[in-house]
Write a structure and sequence with these properties.
Helix content is about 45%, strand content about 15%. It contains 18 helices and 19 strands. The protein has helices spanning about 5-10, 10-15, 15-35, 45-60, 95, 175-180, 200, 210-255, 260-270, 275, 280-295, 310-325, 355-360, 400-405, 455-465, 470-475, 485-490, 500-540, and strands at about 90, 100, 115-120, 125-130, 135-140, 150, 155-160, 160-165, 205-210, 350-355, 360-365, 380-385, 390-395, 400, 420, 430-435, 440, 445-450, 495. Strands 11-18-15-16-13 form a five-stranded mixed β-sheet. It has a four-stranded antiparallel β-sheet with strand order 2-8-5-6, covered by helices on one side. The chain has a three-stranded mixed β-sheet with strand order 4-3-7, with no helix packed on it. Helix 8 (about 210-255) runs parallel beside helix 11 (about 280-295).
Length: about 550
């Protein structure tokens, strides 16, 4: 196995920015293993260069230009670099290089107009009028970004959170940069705030080639990294075009004037799914478009024979009055009637805009005193907003007792009740889930108990909230932790189709979402297969001894 096979499969496996990152890493690995360019038997052995470097260090110690460091232990056979060419040499970092401490420079003394770059632990953090060293050097993060490696090609100032290493005579700065990038210095950082200990860095073993080969390696690395840059630009442009095409396809789907046109645009999307929708964000937009089409009456045709939604609402109103009279539910404060001008879009004939409170009994829960074990030693599930990321809730992290129900007026909601997160961390607020078990809830959740207990009706409401997720979140009050409340959930307006059409809509959404999931899974499998192939090729190129 060689680089030739990798290049043959290059177009197949290098199809994502992550792939290029792996290729860049491979290039650097090959560079420090002597596998990137051929060796020239006429080159002076690197062992000669190593002896010159050691002699130069001894001279500088004698002249007291550098300190005499503690002697390093000899390199054990198991520490030797077995896979480097014979013309290369290896040594402990402390034998060949000096890690000089940087010097503190306050932020006030860093200017934006100075000519000398000031390096922190991972790159330039400002400029200065004076230099700490007037020679090119490698800067290694000591604190903060411990082990980060940067290259200063001119005079520079290194602050006290980093080391600077001046290349010894006969060493190419760019190769030294590659060498330290691949040395694994970031792995020796220790502590809560990891730091690189100089003595631990000094005992690490590195290998390097003759000077002439260093030049050849640097030239080859520059060439290959340039190709990676070009490929990265091409992929970026291609991704931009794909995103534009995906958005255009979704737009045409949304604006399709007829069922025939809708089917034509859907077929276009389905046949190009793995190309246009290999980005999870694009798939999310497609699913959102399907949900929007569903609640706008554009996903399935209307049937004039369907019983209008107004009849459904009258039946629900009658049923609610009956439940109130029987004392099974409490009468809720009425909300202002829906005014046609307040709705965001027109709905088909037979549909009705109305508040969620018309369709359901809406409530919340509470949290029993957390320090009282007697409230949490029961078997009654108690759901919090964290479980609303699930489509169906079948278990909860905590359970409460019968005493908790009594003392905190907790209601046990039946399976099928929809749960909306009113507040919570990150993406939680506005998420909707459904109880698969009987459960209580805390005050961060809103329970939506629909009067009409039909699976497809519940699914329609659930799909509406999934489609309106971002808009629902915007209803939250401001502050450091924006929250929804029961009243805002009750007042949420939704378009209500005839029951028969709700059934057809849910069937169609289920079908299209299932296809999206299936196509997304296929795309994910292909991407994973390509990633696995790339990793295998990289492994076999870097470790050819493992190949039979």
């Amino acid at each position: 196995m060689s680089l030739q096979l990798l290049f043959e499969k290059f177009k197949q496996v290098v199809d994502r920015p992550e792939s290029i990152k792996e290729i860049r890493s491979l290039i650097l690995q090959l560079a420090v293993q002597g596998k990137l360019v051929e060796q020239d038997p006429n080159d002076e052995s690197a062992s000669v260069l190593l002896e010159k470097i050691k002699a130069e260090k001894e001279r500088l110690v004698k002249e007291k230009k550098i300190k005499n460091e503690k002697p390093l232990p000899p390199i054990d056979p198991e520490d030797r670099l077995a896979n480097i060419p014979d013309s290369w040499a290896y040594c402990r970092i402390g034998e060949g290089f000096v890690l000089n401490y940087g010097k503190a420079l306050s932020k006030e003394n860093r200017v934006q107009t100075g000519k000398v770059p000031v390096y922190g632990s991972n790159g330039v953090v400002g400029f200065h009028d004076h230099f700490l060293t007037d020679k090119p050097c490698i800067v290694i993060g000591r604190k903060g970004s411990a082990g980060a490696v940067n290259m200063a090609v001119e005079s520079s100032w290194t602050t006290d959170v980093a080391y600077y290493v001046i290349p010894p005579e006969g060493f190419v700065l760019k190769f030294m940069h590659i060498l330290f990038l691949q040395a694994g210095l970031e792995n020796i950082g220790k502590g809560i705030k990891p730091g690189v200990n100089r003595n631990e860095a000094y005992i690490m073993v590195v290998g390097f080639p003759p000077l002439a080969e260093q030049h050849c390696i640097v030239e080859k690395v520059d060439q290959l990294m340039g190709l990676c840059d070009c490929l990265e630009d091409q992929l970026s442009q291609f991704d931009s075009v794909k995103t534009d095409l995906a958005e255009s396809a979704v737009h045409h789907l949304m604006e399709a004037p007829t069922e025939q046109e809708f089917n034509r645009h859907w077929t276009f999307i389905r046949n190009r799914f793995d190309t246009l929708f290999d980005n999870p964000e694009n798939v999310k937009k497609l699913k959102q478009a399907i949900l929007q089409l569903a609640v706008q009456g554009k996903l399935v045709p209307q049937d004039p024979n369907d019983e209008p939604a107004s009849v459904l609402l009258e039946k629900i109103k009658t049923e609610k009055q009956k439940l109130i009279k029987e004392g099974k539910i409490k009468k809720q404060k009425p909300l202002p009637p829906t005014v046609p001008g307040e709705v965001p879009f027109e709905v088909p004939e037979g549909w009705v805009w109305d508040c969620l409170s018309v369709l359901a009994i809406i409530g919340t829960g509470s949290t029993p005193t957390s320090t009282e074990e007697k409230y949490y030693d029961g078997t009654i599930p108690w759901a919090t907003s964290s479980v609303t990321s699930l489509s169906l809730i079948f278990s909860t992290e905590k359970h409460v007792s019968e005493l908790a129900l009594l003392d905190f007026n907790l209601k046990v909601y039946n399976p099928g009740v929809l749960i909306i997160a009113m507040y919570g961390q990150g993406k939680t607020r506005g998420q909707i889930s459904e109880l698969g078990i009987a459960s209580t809830i805390n005050q961060a959740c809103c329970a939506v108990d629909l009067i009409t207990q039909m699976d497809f009706h519940r699914k329609y409401v659930k799909y509406f909230f999934k489609g309106e997720y971002e808009k629902i979140r915007l209803l939250a009050a401001g502050g450091a932790q924006p929250n929804l409340n029961v009243r805002k959930i009750q007042a949420t307006k939704l378009p209500i189709p005839p029951l028969e059409e709700q059934h057809r809509i849910v069937e169609k959404v289920d079908q299209l979402m299932g296809l999206c999931d299936h196509l997304e899974s296929d795309t994910g499998s292909r991407n994973k297969a390509n990633s696995d192939l790339l990793q295998s090729l990289v492994h076999h190129v870097v470790e050819p001894a493992l190949v039979q």
